[in-house]
Amino acid sequence: MLYSAHLLYLAADAPNPRGRVLVAAGTVFGEILLWSVAITPFPSSGIHDLQIPKTHYRLLGHEGSIFGVNISPKCHGDKYYLASCSDDRTIRIWDISQFDSSPPTADGSEIKRTGFGHELTRGGGCISVGWGHGARIWGVRFLPVTEESLIELLSISEDLTSRFWTFNLEQKGAGSIELKNTATYRLHSGKHIWSYALDFERGLLATGGADGRIGLIHYRDDQESREEAWDMDSVLAQIGDSREEPGEPSHKDKKAHDAFKEYAALDNDCFAATTTRGRVLTYTLSQKRWNLVGQWAELKGWSILASWEDSGLIALGDRNGQVGVLDTVSKREWWWQSMAGESGKVAGVFLGSYYILTTALSPTIFSLHSFKMDRSKSPSVLIDRETLSLHSPARAGETKFLVTSLAVNQETNYLLLGSRAGTLGIYDLSSTVRPLWALSHTLVHPTDAITSILLLKPGILTTSRNGEYSHLSISSPPNICLTKTHSLKPSLVIEGAGQLDNLTLWGFRGKHFMVINQASQHEAHSVECGGAHRAWTYRLNEYFVWTKAGKSHIARTYPRRKLLQSGLHGREVKSIATHGDLIATGAEDTLLHLSTLSPTSGELCLGTVVGTHTTGIHALQFTPSGQYLFSAGGAGELLAWRVRSVNEIVLRGACEGWSDLRVEGFDLLPVGGGGGGEDGVLLAIGYSDSTIRLYYFSPSTGTFNLVMKGTYKACCILHIKFLPSNDGILVAGTDGYLSIYPLSDPCSLTSLPHPLPLPRKSVEKRVHQSSIKALKVVVGANGVCVYTGGDDCAFGVTRVDTKYNVAESWIVPRAHASAVTAVLCVGGHVLTAGVDQQVKLWKVSEGGEGIMVEAQEQQESAVADISAAEMVGGKVVIVGVGVDVWEASARL
Amino acid sequence: MGKSSKDKRDSYYRLAKEQGWRARSAFKLLQLNSQFNLFADVTRVVDLCAAPGSWSQVLSRTLPPTSTIVSLDLQPMTPLPGVTTLQADITHPSTLPLLLQHLGNKPADLVVSDGAPDVTGLHDLDEYIQSQLLLAALNLATCVLKPGGGFVAKIFRGRDVAVVFAQLRCLFNRVTCAKPRSSRGSSIEAFVVCEGYSPPAGFKASLEAPLGLGMKFPEKPNRSDKEEEHLVDGVREIELRELEGGEDGDHDSQEARYIVPFIACGDLSEFDSDATYALPEVDEFGQKWKSKDPVQPPTAPPYKTALEMRRQLGGGGGGGPSTS
């Protein structure tokens, strides 16, 4: 069975008076056939005059199906190569130059062995095997040959990466030629890169993934600007300062040798560095040039460095408690004692413009130094220097407040300090009390360092080494109160954040320094630097500098990747919930997306991506107020979220989970008594082991209390709904039944010492042959009406009278060609959608004889594996493998 | 997750190990048979895409010992008593004489196929390949089936499944789409059960000129007899006037489509393949229950060597250099 093919036209030449088409074909059984056929390219008759095809090679060796083949252009005079990629995670290069002189291979009419693992290859040797991809490789492609002996390739894979490879034909030595993975890009999420396009002239690669993203990579630029690394000797040689320090004995032990200490970015082209021998250096990237600013004996063995970016100024702390401001351009310097009466080391230097906060080694009092730069002088002069003492925000008995970050809000005159323990202290700098006391001290990131504080309008953003970043709103005095309005954990030890067009986070993941575009959650950069424990500095979008093995490494990080289209989930969407114009979707990629519907394009605009769930998200629901969102899925996980907008979501609580269970359906009911002016929420959850649990969720504490528990049957529960009449819960599962458990007073189920047992069922009605895949409860003229979609292809309508405990059902068999997985009320009609990708509209009416159903309209959706549908702003949003938006009004 | 976790989440996986089936799919054929009585009067049966052989196991345990069971697969298969196993390509013309020879040159009563490709995740592609596999099985079946014979094959109930249904109806008296309870509800798979092989007059079965792949299906016979709906008790059927399977419409631009009746097989008292079950405390011998090893270890995946390479390089993650 053919899986992949590539055709190359060979023009006529002396031995071949006709042009030929050379065909490489990869099969599902792991073999590659190379054959050709003579062809008249532009036959006047309109019929291509095909000759008998000739098979040149059967190339064997791959251990899995061949997903891609590519024939190289003619290179090195008369060479042709074939690249193949496979289920076996390898890329193989074959030399097929001799195809014309190879003995003809049998055309396959004899019985041949099939299957994999042939040891023999008939002609055409595999010259190289490339390893690296972590999953199936879907495509491979040669790049035009630019260097005589070096051949480049591109591959795309299920593992979300696109990779560039090279092999060198002049490689000497025994064995096969090495196929080297030279660059790896990962811009997609979920699973699969399916497509790509290359622009060789501009060096651009575009990739398309199952996540709907289109990524653009400037691959050529990347390869031209590889990292540079400097050892100290080369630096000292360049600045012409390799002499030994005066007064130092000229011994060669390691201590005497200078080494890089700290870095601070100055501007797009320049950063500063200190050394263990007390040197202060600057490096200009465009000129690849180091400059010596100066050398200070007090900075030997101890130097704290910070910079005010784009001002040319740096701040230094020395081992004698002196703090200095240095103009790296004019080389002017100003030094003073950081703390009256303290002569120990300066422990930390934290900057605002122009503020310096210095801390001593045992800090209970901090010093805040302020100054101005008089730019009317040339060079500028530091003037109006003042020093203010602050009490540490930590009171007696609390953990020491070790400052890790600072921000000064010039408008409110607030000083914000972040600590190593994840707390945030706030001072009002306009207060006249001395030393200054903190207005508030709040734990924000339990319990790791706040690495940066970014001023937003309004509020602030904090990042933490615990992997979290948060948006906080700060209420006005006198009662300063911090509210976390948004908080996420993007699996990164976050060291900093910046906001240009989008929020960008940077930090470390494993051995890599990573820059993440948080809005689209794509990896903007990653630099393998060896890990977090080292001196480094990063200039947003420009460069990353770090020390590794004694060398100073510099990597350019200006944007060479971007998303042309941000896409949605990388795997099947399994659930959708809406409130107003806000849309929450949950998918098998374990992500929760918040988005809105663009009124202009009619497409989903992504706001926030939440990656807290560990397995697929199968059910989602907002509270009627829209303040809270609940998400549930595999591992019995059910999480409560406080949602303020499409960009503001905070985890509020997690229900107990069970690793073996799944939640396919749950429902909620606001019941009051939540405290803090917010309603409590009663949740009914159905699990895959047929248990039903009711929990009371308290928004003020974020806790879930089990209030009722029971077992339905032995089958998996798929849906659970509070009846609109508030007098029971409706349960549907894989057995095709609709069942009702009466509840007399659900609002009383708030806090109970022991959970109550589930009452007896009052209604039990089988509607479908098997799973009820979709369910919608509405209040009809004659009581409750339940619309159901079944795995049995049927659409069901069930009328329930809870007063008299009766249910009557009507069924439209063969409503779809497959399982009916979505049911929705649209205007006065009912919409169904199924895995057959059909969207159907039904007119359902009640008459004397019962329910009548008429088919109204039928359309095909582009979404495969449809799982649910919801209404948003009068439009129908259908989710599955992708998202479809339908104009509802036009269809009625 | 531990070994017994899969036993909890997949009761048919656990049962298959305990009852000695090579794969959990054995229960699918058992449940199909209990619904359709597929094996009545069957003495010659062909199992296509048979590896690892659980359907052949069902056939050999259920059919009388005098029956002829021939199993085909591309992959080698561990032999089974009473079953002739052939390693062959079902699409290849040379397979037919080989198969006929092992059937004693007599037509088969039943052809079954549980074959499926390794899914890629691209639904259109996966459904297309599954349909191609089904067509290949059907082509071979038409060459060996006796008139009135049966054909059972796996099908993906995706976008164009109604086209396949319409095609099958051209060759069989009764076509039903069936989903056994042992097949996961979350899976797109189901089975077509085709009964009463009756090719239209003039139809010539051939592997040289197979159905599909550009070949026209024979004209649909005019079968006006009402098909039986499988409704649960106590519900009322609503018959639709329009939308009768969507067979109307533009024949030039659209292939004929037909929705065949659906039936869920297996009793509700049997295990639910989507549910999580508590594990039994004792086994059938009254001993403390222990998770068993699979009857047949899973076949080596094509990326086995790649996994070994990765292990040698150390670290399970990333792999390959990363560039900014």
Automatic annotation (TrEMBL), chain A:
Domain of life (superkingdom): Eukaryota
SUPFAM superfamilies linked to this entry: WD40 repeat-like
Signal peptide start and end residues: none
InterPro entries the UniProt entry points to: tRNA_Anticodon_Mtase-Reg, WD40/YVTN_repeat-like_dom_sf, WD40_repeat_CS, WD40_repeat_dom_sf, WD40_rpt
Record keywords, A-Z: Cytoplasm, Repeat, tRNA processing, WD repeat
Gene Ontology terms: cellular component: cytoplasm
Coiled-coil intervals: none
WD repeat extents: 59-97, 610-651
Location(s), subcellular: Cytoplasm
Pfam families in the record: WD40
Swiss-Prot/TrEMBL GO biological process terms: tRNA methylation
Entry keyword annotation includes tRNA processing: yes
Family membership noted in the UniProt record: Belongs to the WD repeat WDR6 family.
The name this protein goes by in its record: WD40-repeat-containing domain protein
Species of provenance: Tuber borchii (White truffle)
TrEMBL record, chain B:
InterPro entries xref list: RNA_methyltr_E_TRM7, RNA_methyltr_RlmE, RNA_MeTrfase_FtsJ_dom, rRNA-MeTfrase_E, SAM-dependent_MTases_sf
SUPFAM superfamilies according to UniProt: S-adenosyl-L-methionine-dependent methyltransferases
Subcellular location: Cytoplasm
The name this protein goes by in its record: Putative tRNA (cytidine(32)/guanosine(34)-2'-O)-methyltransferase
Signal sequence bounds: none
GO molecular function terms noted in the UniProt entry: tRNA (guanosine(34)-2'-O)-methyltransferase activity
Family affiliation: Belongs to the class I-like SAM-binding methyltransferase superfamily. RNA methyltransferase RlmE family. TRM7 subfamily.
GO cellular component labels: cytoplasm
EC number(s) reported in the record: 2.1.1.205
Origin: domain of life: Eukaryota
Functional description taken from the UniProt entry: Methylates the 2'-O-ribose of nucleotides at positions 32 and 34 of the tRNA anticodon loop of substrate tRNAs.
Binding site for S-adenosyl-L-methionine: G53, W55, D73, D89, D114
Record flagged with keyword Secreted: no
Composition-biased stretches (Gly residues): 313-324
One of the Pfam families matching this protein, by short name: FtsJ
Record's keyword annotation contains Disulfide bond: no
Active site (record annotation): K154
UniProt catalytic activity: cytidine(32)/guanosine(34) in tRNA + 2 S-adenosyl-L-methionine = 2'-O-methylcytidine(32)/2'-O-methylguanosine(34) in tRNA + 2 S-adenosyl-L-homocysteine + 2 H(+)
Disordered: annotated segments: 284-324
Biological process (GO), any one: tRNA nucleoside ribose methylation
Keywords, in A-Z order: Cytoplasm, Methyltransferase, S-adenosyl-L-methionine, Transferase, tRNA processing
Primary site of residence: cytoplasm
Gene3D superfamilies with a match to the protein in the record: Vaccinia Virus protein VP39
Leading EC class: transferase
Segments forming domain Ribosomal RNA methyltransferase FtsJ: 21-197
